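Quick one: structure tokens for this chain, please?
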Amino acid sequence: MNWNREKLMEATRRQMPASRWEHTLRVMETAVELARRTGADPEKAEIAAILHDYAKFWPEEKLQEGILRYRLPRELLQYSPVLWHAPVGAEAVREGLGIDDEEVLEAIRSHTTGRPGMSLLEKVIFLADYIEPGRSFSGVEEVRRLAREDLNRAILKALDNTILYLIGRGFKVYPQTLLTRNDMLDQIPQTHPKEESH
């Protein structure tokens, strides 16, 4: 891992408005803190966090071209363009910035939807993006509280919040998000309520 952190930061900063760069810096700090607390690699967490929104502000046409050029799942095109920047960004930083660490690339790729079988690093980046201190949407405080106790439960709650938000507004839910939620449920010990006796 021979990364030039300053070069990667500058390359990413040029891709986005100043307000989003501030978000990126907060995600970076949150990711490093989560990594140190959970045993993930702090250096990889920092690099993945710096790069996670690399393609966020690319025009939709450029993101569409990226989906086709990098042979990403074409079904992405049937869902919100908000999802496109993560998988396209992972390929763009591999190609343009020479990032070849698969765990870092996977963390970038899955930071919006998650995926079944996420590594610890992926979980850290997914959660850091969701709970960084600048976020103020409904439900984020509970996810922050859970993140101090159990990454899996925090991610499950974040996914639940996202899915309910999309359903409440009549939007499609990307299937991978649902599969990720089911996978997180499988990773959490379930306490089943006892059946009432009649």
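The mean pLDDT is 94.
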